[in-house]
């Protein structure tokens, strides 16, 4: 087999969508050229990046003649196109389960979690920069949904109704995941797969962002799942590439309850 061309990945933090592509590349041990696209500096809306990905979203993968966007199908491409261990189940029912969860993570849970992130992290961090520059950059954003997210984050303009819907989805997601992990050790079933990577890039933040709802008492299976994933060398390597304090959220997973202190 001919060695595949070295891929180039445009990513931000190992968080959510960019994290998925970074993690599968690390899990497969693929040498890639990484370019950090600073989301807070709105580099994803600069003409040179839009020439690659006209939607102005991160990540983008360039592999030979192919330019790939959309992180979840991108993970599947990486898994299939490169040598190394496979993270897509060969068994049809496990593949269905993996894709069911990936769809749930991407279309139901991620938007709810992302709203909290934009309110708590992106908005305040962006305000440390020049507001005039940011306002001008927002006007150039191609996607209406992203323009609106930036606008709301900058002016802390999220309605009570959308914030409470985001919380409701978050709690429902935790409930469903905890129940699933009572039946199966991993998202697809018996083995670690793309579904776990997809869930982890959202879930690594659960214990620090929702400590009252995701902890060793209320969601022990989720905590155990996060710890098993966190112990993987590829995860450590990927999260070491983080440049903001988001990456430090990994540490809240590894702290185990102190039985003496808790009086257990
Ligand atoms: N559906 C896309 C979404 C990508 C996405 O929205 N990425 C965020 C970073 S996690 C982004 O690029 N945001 C840029 C912006 O809102 O300006 C994917 O899965 O790749």
Topology overview:
Layout: E1 8-11, H1 16-27, E2 33-36, H2 47-50, E3 60-63, E4 66-68, H3 71-81, H4 92-126, H5 131-139, H6 144-155, H7 160-183, H8 194-203, H9 206-209, H10 220-230, H11 233-239, H12 251-254, H13 259-262
Parallel strand pairs: 1-2
Antiparallel strand pairs: 1-3, 3-4
Helix pairs in contact: 1-3, 1-8, 1-11, 4-6, 4-7, 4-8, 7-10
This protein binds glutathione.
Glutathione binds next to helix 1, helix 3 and helix 6.
Number of strands: 4
Query: What small molecules accompany the polymer chains?
Result: glutathione
**Overall 3D form:** globular
CATH fold-type name of the largest domain? Glutathione S-transferase Yfyf (Class Pi), Chain A, domain 2
Number of domains: 2
Average residue pLDDT: 92
The appropriate CATH architecture of the largest domain is Up-down Bundle
Order of helices and strands: EHEHEEHHHHHHHHHHH
How are the strands of the biggest sheet laid out side by side? 2-1-3-4
Strand content: 5-15%
C-alpha termini separation? 56 Å
Using only C-alpha atoms, the radius of gyration works out to 19 Å
User: For this structure, what is the CATH class of the largest domain?
Assistant: Mainly Alpha
Largest sheet: 4 strands, mixed
Question: What's the tally of helices?
Answer: 13
Low-confidence stretches: none
Helix content: 55-70%
Structural class: mainly alpha
What attributes does this structure have?
single chain, mainly alpha, binds glutathione, 56% helix, 2 domains, Glutaredoxin, 264 residues, Glutathione S-transferase Yfyf (Class Pi), Chain A, domain 2
